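Please, structure for the following, as tokens.
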Amino acid sequence: MAKDKQVEQITDMEVDFAQWYTDVVKKAELIDYSGVKGFYIMRPYGYALWENIQRAMDDIFKATGHENVSMPILIPEGLLQKEKDHVDGFAPEVAWVTHGGSEELTEKLCIRPTSETLFCDHYSRIVRSWRDLPKLYNQWCSVLRWEKTTRPFLRHREFLWQEGHTVHATEAEAREETLRMLEVYADIAENWLAMPVIRGQKTEKEKFAGAQDTYSIECMMHDKKGLQAGTSHYFGDGFAKAFDITYTDKDNQIRHCHQTSWGSSIRLIGGLIMTHGDNSGLVLPPKIAPTQVVIIPIAAHKEGVLDRAEQLLTRLKTAGIRAKLDSSDQSPGWKFAEYEMKGVPLRLEMGPRDIEANQCILAPRVGEKITISQDDLEQQVETMLTAIQQGLFDRAKAHLEAHITPVQTMAEAGRIVAEEQGGFVKAMWCGARACEEALKTEYAITSRNIPFAQERVGETCLVCGKPADTMVIWGLAY
């Protein structure tokens, strides 16, 4: 037998969470560093994760009437400048193309940080009548933002995402679309990624540049920091006026359209890692795991073991389960550690004695092993995968709920979030931007969102002490 490779160790998350995260990303072979600072290479296993998330989202987008399109990667400077708030919000992160070959361009071209202006320019040419509406478009692409500090999946200079852009006849239709797509993101996060979310509206300070209202889903990571996992924006008719997107209504009146935009990105993978991972590596929910079951033959050199393993593999694949067989000459112990690192939800072990007894062992990534009859293989595997998916969600939800603390004052919020147990706090807020800024300046605490599920946790603003009617979730965030 060939000498075993060494399964690389990772830093314990309790010792250094940031290093643990980097170790997992690298050693589970999700990402590699490129020769350009701030730009990363998504390796096959990492990209397979994104493909599964993308496929789930795309199916829902299409089921809700959206169509995929592709916009240019470059935006003329003049086009970008048409909506002032939007361009001001992105100006510090924009990268510019100034030359084409050896010739200097007469107008600089921006490498898209987002595509609102491109969609608006397009809509201004194709929308004429109420019969043309709504337009429900989505784009899968990469965008570029010149971030000062980068981190795998969480903050790249170039990153993969989807961006939806829709245009409607009325405010009511556009607002309905905005909230519908937020719920799509919540569905993906909770039912596919097993990441419980807090649905709510962003404050004026935290909303998207150029939006009238921004809504988000907020998750809590294992280290009790927050992660914005998806946003949906109602633009009103501001972009429509800037780009002259008008239509003739049923009464033959010229009116401006109302628009939305919504997006999520590969930072969902970062959230997945930090929500479910442990000191052995990744822990992946079965619904999006590239491999749901890995078959590890025991004493594979003995007669009949590999043949039976191949039969079980065929049965699982026929049942629609993403399964693989590792028949390499590495030891079973090495394989156990390797697939734990990669977060494969379920391991199937089988050796000569198991064949004689017509049984096999199922070992979940998190949980206890069980022995099953091979006759019940498909049903037992499907049942266990369902239980694993639900168990990960329940564990993450319990973690979230256990670390949301009601507070009355800024000092209490700072003590809990920045100095003691961490997590989120919920507190009343008067609505003043100055109070929001004070929390960020003093403790680096930001508003995560104004949750739809409002409750009174006091009578006064946690910062200024004035009467307050709005409850906000606050915390440290990625």
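The two ends are 46 Å apart (CA to CA). The chain has three domains: 17-276, 293-384, 404-475.
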